[in-house]
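User: Can you fold this complex?
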Amino acid sequence: MTVVRRAALVAALVLLFAGAVGCSSTSEGDDDQGDEQMQVEATEAALAALAEELGERPGIERAEATYDRSTGVALPSQLYVVAEVADEDPQEARRIVEEVTRATWDSAVPSISTLIVEVVTADDQLSVTTADVYGSLSLDRTELTERFGPRDG
Amino acid sequence: VAEGLAVSGGAGGASARVEDLRTKADIAEGIADHLGDVARQLGALAASPDVLATAPLSPLTATRAQTQATAATARLATTFGLVRAGATQLRVTAAAVEAADRTISFGSELGSTGLGLLALGGGITQSVLSLPGSFGTNLGSSLREAARAGSDGGRGAFLDALRGVPGAAASGTLGDLGAYWTEVVLDRPEVVNAVVDTSTVVGSVLAGRSLDYPALLRSVTGIGERFGLLDDGRQVEVLPSDFAGVTLTTRGNIRVPTSIEDLVRNQTSLMDLADLDPHSSRLRVIEVPSADGSSWIVQVPGTQALDGGTNPSDMATNLYLSGHQDAALLDAMSAVLRQQGVGDDPVMLVGHSQGGIAATNFSNRGREEGFNVTHVVTIGSPIATIPVPRDVQVLALEHANDVVPRLDGRSNPDLPNVTTVTRHPGGSAVYDDPIGPHGSREYWETAQRVDRSGDPSVTTFLRSAAPFLAGEPRTGQDAIRSGLVTDHTIRRESP
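Assistant: Here's the predicted assembly.
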């Protein structure tokens, strides 16, 4: 293969991977990277506040909220909220799943695409999730809006 | 489409049905041959000199016997013909199913390439059209900057500012291209498949020979290595790891698995923990003891960095593995299995994203090294081009709107040992980011549905994988304390 052909091949693949990476990144270069970083920081602050507020609610020992990083990039709009409870009553756990889901939807977290809520005991013997309460583990924005109404952000 | 899942391949797939038809044809032909033999023997018996010699003793009985033998031979011959025809019909049906499958596949590739050309053309047109605008804007701002600096730096500053214009214009154009792709992919994720297809065709034309996608990637890694841009190291360290840093959101996802959902949750916690140290990655090994000896599950995380340095879970590894080449990550899997003393016990390999590509590749290498790899589970991984031993059972979970499993430009092959389950979570517009449906947490629900699925291919896979999911269910601290779940830190010795 000539050097020119090789260069063209590399160019084609760079385009391909640029396309793929473009899918996972934002479109306006540095400005959007800055925006994304700001969204991550805003989300982290809001999630910390939400977790603290949830942890003070009756029946909840402590709570933690995070977002998906499993793709190698931060997806701050895909949330996972866990509340630890002392009471091993599954009915009470279901009620808390509902309460946490609504509280998260009503919170100041800037943007929510999908939400998974889980209530566990300290020994992890009990786990009740949004799947047990709503029939769907990962609630998307459409489902959340239908249940709890529209939100800002 | 039960549970919102589309299932292809596996025990209930088209390829298995073709194999089934051929097996039935073989059996029918065997029966026909046997009938033919019996008919011939009966005919020969009726006409044998010994039988004919006894005819004068009882001519009436002999005539009746001969008539009956002739009639039976004729009936057997007719049955032989019918069974033979049935066998031929089964073979024709099998060939027709295969031909139809090939035609559909060719048509879909043709359509995909056309779509890819349109998408690429659209992107290039948009970029070219936006170039004059961004060029003008950047020229204007550079001139303003030069005018401001002009009083201090004079002509030199003016020329420096002008030199920056093409770069700035190009960066604006790349931004437009990125925006275009994001929009296209959000709307039509299948375009990624098409673009890969088209790039392979374009690459083949440029190279002057037919290249498939893995060969194309091997060329890239070869060029990258030659210019010192890529170096996988190939020396790995495997160190003991602990579960320090486990948080509430991580804890519950560390599991001795009893379901596919548990396997996917382990992937999430593995990635969360691996995130704590950007310089290394992690592999998780789970022992499932039984009276007959242990089974082992190895879980491999997804991509963590563009250039990982000592962390082998990076983009370079994706290039090597997608080109079916060896990589430090596979060396680490091998080392971990040896350290755990797995021997020839059954092994299931599980991975999300890059982890799935590694798991599928290792199904071959592991076998060569004497490991008894029997099952592979991939989550959102492009594995269509990776060959898998015929007796390794593969379950591939994919989302229709996840671009990553499409990055090899192919749908997974319809093979009896490869079951692909596809779900379309939400509408793609629900996600803010096109990579959103790739998140491992989004696959939890898909896995739940797989666990509940009654699809024949899925249930056959789950039945065969039962020994791996037969452990006592343990979650969080209980799983960690059991000693059955072991994490290993892995890193390249030389970046």
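Chain B touches chain A through 67 residues (CB under 8 Å). Chain B has a mean pLDDT of 87.
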